[in-house]
């Protein structure tokens, strides 16, 4: 009996560990399988995203400063609150330009964007950005002709522009191959086992970009789908694993 128990234990240790390791071997086809499954799972409402609201208000010539403002407002808050703050700001200023941000009273600016949180910090950043870009009005436009590495470096030199903000602007606005990672995406990819729990922002970003071979459309689709999946199914608390259509691909790193 002890011999049988020993054999069973060895069997589980060897074969189950082998099975789990296979689940966590990721490549392009498995990442694309995620996109395929999540497209069928979720009805993505783009109106829930701040960027869609900002881009909807752009006419023939994109106002990159207005779009960057919207992304900054979304920092450390929900898209819902960022959209409200953005619309408030549009109502107050009529048009979000360097000049209008520069001349508006800071108390008025803070009041308009307060719903997005961190109003003191964000109003200061917008003021600083407006001054810098007013002196160099082609700064954001010039990013169009740069490769992603150079454009990213230039964006990160601006006040208030961190890694995620830069990557959102580059991928979703300028259509350059990078991958923005928010809290939802970071949680989902680590639970799936695409990245390890110790991976930092840059590690995660580069793994996804490399898996998808710089395919801009796929990177943008995966970005939106993982956010929605993280909001609806793979939530921070009490993830709905039994309702998850990715369960066959998931390493269940909970």
UniProtKB/TrEMBL annotation:
Protein keywords: 4Fe-4S, DNA damage, DNA repair, Endonuclease, Glycosidase, Hydrolase, Iron, Iron-sulfur, Metal-binding, Nuclease
Span of domain HhH-GPD: 73-232
GO BP: base-excision repair, AP site formation
SMART domains hit by this protein: ENDO3c (SM00478)
Annotated PROSITE patterns: ENDONUCLEASE_III_1
SUPFAM superfamilies listed in its UniProt record: DNA-glycosylase
GO MF terms, alphabetically ordered: 4 iron, 4 sulfur cluster binding; DNA N-glycosylase activity; endonuclease activity; metal ion binding
Cofactor(s) needed: [4Fe-4S] cluster
InterPro entries: DNA_glycosylase, Endouclease-III_FeS-bd_BS, HhH-GPD_domain, HhH_base_excis_C
Leader sequence segment: none
Homology family: Belongs to the Nth/MutY family.
Protein's name according to its UniProt entry: Endonuclease III
């Amino acid at each position: 009996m002890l011999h049988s128990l020993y054999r069973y234990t060895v069997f589980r240790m060897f074969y189950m560990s082998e099975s789990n390791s296979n689940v966590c071997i990721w490549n392009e086809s498995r990442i694309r399988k995620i996109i395929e499954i999540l497209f069928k799972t979720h009805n993505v409402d783009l109106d829930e995203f701040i960027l869609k609201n900002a881009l909807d208000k752009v006419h023939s010539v994109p106002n990159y400063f207005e779009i960057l403002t919207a992304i900054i407002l979304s920092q450390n808050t929900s898209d819902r609150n960022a959209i409200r703050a953005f619309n408030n700001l549009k109502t107050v200023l009529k048009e979000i330009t360097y000049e209008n941000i520069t001349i508006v009273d800071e108390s008025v600016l803070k009041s308009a964007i307060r719903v997005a949180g961190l109003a003191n910090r964000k109003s200061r950043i917008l003021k600083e950005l407006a001054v810098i870009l007013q002196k160099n009005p082609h700064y954001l436009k010039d990013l169009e002709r740069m490769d992603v590495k150079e454009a990213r470096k230039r964006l990160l030199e601006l006040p208030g522009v961190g890694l995620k903000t830069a990557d959102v602007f580059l991928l979703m606005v300028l259509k350059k191959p990078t991958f923005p990672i928010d809290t939802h995406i970071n949680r989902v990819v680590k639970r799936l086992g695409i990245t390890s729990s110790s991976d930092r922002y840059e590690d995660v970003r580069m793994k996804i970009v490399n898996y998808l071979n710089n395919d801009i459309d796929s990177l943008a689709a995966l970005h939106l789908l993982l956010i929605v999946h993280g909001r609806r199914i793979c939530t921070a608390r009490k993830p709905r694993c039994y309702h998850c259509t990715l369960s066959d691909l998931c390493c269940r790193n909970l």
